[in-house]
Amino acid sequence: MTLTFCPDLSAADWIVHSDLPWQQLVGFGPAGFDAYARLRFLPDPGRPGQSENDVDPDWRTDQLPTLLEVLATHTATPDDCYFCVWEGFGHADVAIDDDAVYIDDENARTPLERLGARPGLAPHPVASPSMPQLPKVVLPNRAYWLFRGPLADIGTWDTVQQWPGRCRLDQIEPAFIWPADHAWCVARDVDPHWAGIGGTPPLITRLMSDARLDVVPADPTEDQPLYQ
User: Fold this and answer.
1) Which of 21, 59, 68, 204 suits a disulfide with 35, CB 3.0-4.6 Å?
2) Does 46 fall in a domain?
């Protein structure tokens, strides 16, 4: 299977139709897993209200290939996975205007800033009259393009089959990743300094024991550490 753009959004129904609180859904994905954890790209804040400016600004996104390497061994369908890519990361032929999509936290310091967005605004693709409106997976405050294919092909969005190519995505990380067999799910929203992982207890234990990863157990129903 090769990576393709999915106009059929039904594979994401378990996310769209979830009745979880919004922050829990975008932070950890759907309910139903026996164990959850957080992959931290920055250390957790040491005090309430701490700013990201007070810590090392280098996000440890180099952990993602290792995470995917382990996840591939904990699914029967590593070559058939789904990826939700947030529309706010499209950064060619985009503009910030009065129709821009608002995010919920106007003080968020996230990869948005690396795209030059004003606080509280997500870059919104400006379509020409000839550019079709592509179907998106829609949640409150967020919308995503859906891709399908091998886990190993993650990040190659701009070369996939059926993708018009008008909105360049480069190698950005998806907001949701899950295999067709639903063995696990990874959720990475734009605001937190971590990605949430749901899976089996053996998977979470393996991730936490991997010295290459900064993974800690988590209860998705509780408030999670966040920077201001």
Assistant:
1) 204
2) yes
